[in-house]
Amino acid sequence: MTLNQVITTLKTFQKSHAQLNDFGDGKVEEIGASKDQLFPIMWIVSKSGRYANKDFSYSFQIIFADLLIEDKSNELEVQSDMQSAALDLCAHLRDNPDFDIQMDDNASVDYFTERLGDFTAGVLLSFTLRDPFPLDRCVIPVRL
Asked: What does the pLDDT look like over 53-62, one tens digit per residue?
């Protein structure tokens, strides 16, 4: 599975999730830079890729964020809702027979408030996906 296919898979999840209104990928600083985000959002930060032991591993940080009200009285509710969305993604990636990729057993969830340019709260989900079949000699673009 290519990086493009993985990102498309994540975007498809966001579009089907009733709690998430918008999607993006890139650096954290790019959130809202090219368009107004429609919160709650799911934002993908691709961290690194690594080939080892015949597997290719993709490392991601995914931000799940929503807007706070002015007095921040909904902070815990926003963080809880975004944690639920993050765990929904984990379940989707771990238990989906349509994917060859496998989510590692270890993922971390970090809570934040006012980390982004907007008045937001949410969670940062960090995890690794492994592709056990990254190599295919049949698809190498070879000149004949």
From this structure: 888 899 999 9
